[in-house]
Structures are given as structure tokens and as C-alpha cells.
Amino acid sequence: MAEVQPIVVEIWSDVVCPWCYIGKHRFERALAALTTHLAHVLGVPVPAEDPELAAEIPRWQALHDEVVEGDAQLQFYLRLLEQDYDRRAEEAIPSADDLGAQFEQFLRDHRNDD
Fold it and tell me: Which member of 10, 16, 43, 86 has the lowest number of beta carbons within 10 Å of its beta carbon?
């Protein structure tokens, strides 16, 4: 059986950048969710550098919600950031027509006319 190599993720962040804040928050939640899911699917505990990561998610979410709840300007700003993120994500998703055209081009490029 091949040895499994760990995935190393380096994060460079700016403490005053709102995008960095959102990205860090989402990364931590995604990492904990992935670790929990892998442990469930594989039926074995998945080693993590910080085994308490999943337990911290509710606390992080509560702290985040508490700060945002008490500040209307921050709520507005976060809503704008989330809307901009959603818009950019939707723009990055190709339409069904685009996917079909790409697939047809792929088939043409890889046609074996022997």
C-alpha cells in the first residue's frame, strides 16, 4: 500500500482584509467538515494537526454572529462582500451550452479516425 502524503496548505493573509477574513473563516469550516466527513466515510479517525478543530466551529460561528449582529454597518458590508462573492462564483460556472460546446470540441479533438 502506498504511503499517503499529507496535503500542505499555506495561507498568506492580511489582518485588515475583509476577503481574507471571509476566506479564513470558510477555510477553517471546510477543513473541519472534510476531516469529519473523511473520518465518517473511511470509518477511521483522520489525523489532523489540530484535533479540536471541529469542536471549535460552533464557538467561531457564535463569535462571528455576535459581532456581526450588533453592528448594522458591518452587516451591510458583509452582505455586500457575500453578494460579490456569489456573483463571481456564478460567473465562473459555465452554462450548459458552454459545457456542451467544450465537450463536443473535446470529442472532435480526440476522434480516432483510423
Answer: 10
Q: CA 26 to CA 22: how far, in whole Å?
A: 6
Domain extent at residue 48: 25-91
- Series of mean pLDDT values for 10-residue runs along the chain (114 residues): 71 78 81 74 63 67 78 85 84 86 90 66
Query: Measuring CA to CA, which residue among 34, 35, 32, 24 is closest to residue 57?
Result: 32
- CA-to-CA distance for 24 and 53, rounded, in angstroms? 13
Total domains in the fold of the chain: 1
Q: For residue 56, is it within any domain?
A: yes
CA–CA separation, 25 vs 46, rounded Å? Answer: 21
